[in-house]
Amino acid sequence: MIIRSLEEIEDTVRHVRAASGTWESKRLVLAREQAGFSLHVTTLYAGTQTTMRYTHHVEAVFCVEGEAELTDEESGEKHWITPGTVYLLDGHERHTMRPKTDVRCVCVFNPPLTGREDHDADGAYPPPGPGA
Ligand SMILES: CC(=O)NCC[C@H](N)C(=O)O
Q1: What angle is formed at CA 131 by the lines to CA 126 and CA 132, rounded to 5 degrees?
Q2: Which of 14, 71, 94, 103 could anchor a disulfide with 27, C-beta 3.0 to 4.6 Å?
Q3: Contact 80, 67 (CB under 8 A)
Q4: What sections of the sequence does the record tag as coiled-coil (predicted)?
């Protein structure tokens, strides 16, 4: 059994601040734990916008705090994301988050992230390497 808190991973390698300056991610469970998924607590900052497309991953995002507009860039549909709502990117959709307030969410990735991933120019993370 592994027990780990947000407090103890603050400012460690498990705490990633995006180069874009629009979000940060605390990665509580990573590929090295061999759970088959990674689990993060992500904060998206109020007034920003982040466009993503996880070509190599499926992500579930469960909002626990704050409010954001989510746009599916493929269909043009807009959704309001509030605490208690999950969105699942089961089709690798290109999408944009526009938080009205700081938004805190619990994010699960399959395959799991390995550690320090940040978005590339397309808003993706690289595919997992061997042994991930
Ligand atoms: C909501 C979202 O996808 N934000 C980008 C960061 C990602 N959730 C991560 O934790 O790496």
Answers
A1: 45
A2: 14
A3: yes
A4: none
Percent of the chain with pLDDT over 70: 98
ipTM: 0.94
40 lines ligand 1 (CB under 6 A): yes
Determine contact, residues 87/79, Cβ cutoff 8 Å.
yes
- The verdict on the CB of residue 23 being under 6 Å from ligand 1 is yes
CB 87 within 8 A of CB 43: no
Structure tokens, 84 = 């208690």
SS3 130: coil
Residues 27-82: tens digit of each pLDDT: 999 999 999 999 999 999 999 999 999 999 999 999 999 999 999 999 999 999 99
Pair of tokens at residue 44: 């998206």
Q: Do residues 87 and 59 touch, judged by C-beta distance below 8 A? A: no
Q: Is the pLDDT of residue 132 over 70?
A: no
Q: Is 28 in the pocket of ligand 1 (CB under 6 A)?
A: no
